[in-house]
Amino acid sequence: MHCPFCRHPDSRVVDSRTSDDGASIRRRRQCPACNRRFTTVETTSLSVVKRSGATEPFSREKIAGGVRKACQGRPVSEDDLALLAQKVEETLRSSGSAEIDAYEIGLAILGPLRDLDEVAYLRFASVYQAFESLEDFEAAITVLRAERDAPPEPAGSEPQESGANA
């Protein structure tokens, strides 16, 4: 990191802190040449590769905007949309890749949107997955019903052994 004062090509990190949202790191640095201190903010970048091959920075606002259309007239608040966009971003960042295909973003949206509102999910899926007939809607509704009606599996439970203890 070049010193912004004397342009020395090196600096020493004096203090590091994560930001409130955990998305960046704030570092206090000191130049060994002029001894002046300055602050840097480090963030990770996430790029979206569009179908055309063009890349652009990831945007939570674009996620919320796209889902907002599917949620029109539904009981979904702006806070719900912001949380959904955050979940999608966390899912994408956890993949460890700096470049994400636009198609993968759509797939990452489907799960949290289904949990948020089933009607909005069907609206989004119908466009995203290019439903062409009523049968496509019926198949998606059948899957939703099967998932909703399935008994939940107990988390972390192991089968009990039957028999008497000695």
Assess the beta-strand content as a share of residues.
Answer: 15-25%
* Chain-averaged pLDDT: 86
Going across the biggest sheet, name each strand in turn: 1-2-3
Low-confidence stretches: 161-166
Which overall shape is indicated by the principal axes computed on the Cα atoms?
elongated
Estimated radius of gyration? 24 Å
- The portion of residues assigned to helices is 40-55%
SS-based class = alpha+beta
Count of DSSP H/I helices? 5
Ends distance:
69 Å
Query: Element order, helices and strands?
Result: EEEEEHHEHHH
> What does the largest sheet look like?
3 strands, antiparallel
Number of strands: 6
Task: Describe it.
The strands form two sheets. This protein has a three-stranded antiparallel beta sheet, with no helix packed on it. A three-stranded mixed beta sheet has the order 5-4-6. It is elongated and about 70 Å long. Mean pLDDT is 86; it is low at 161-166. With 166 residues, it is an alpha+beta fold. The chain contains five helices and six strands.
Task: Please give a quick description of this structure.
The protein has five helices and six strands, in the order βββββααβααα. By secondary structure, it is α+β, with helices and mostly antiparallel strands. A hairpin with a 5-residue loop joins strand 4 and strand 5 (55-57).
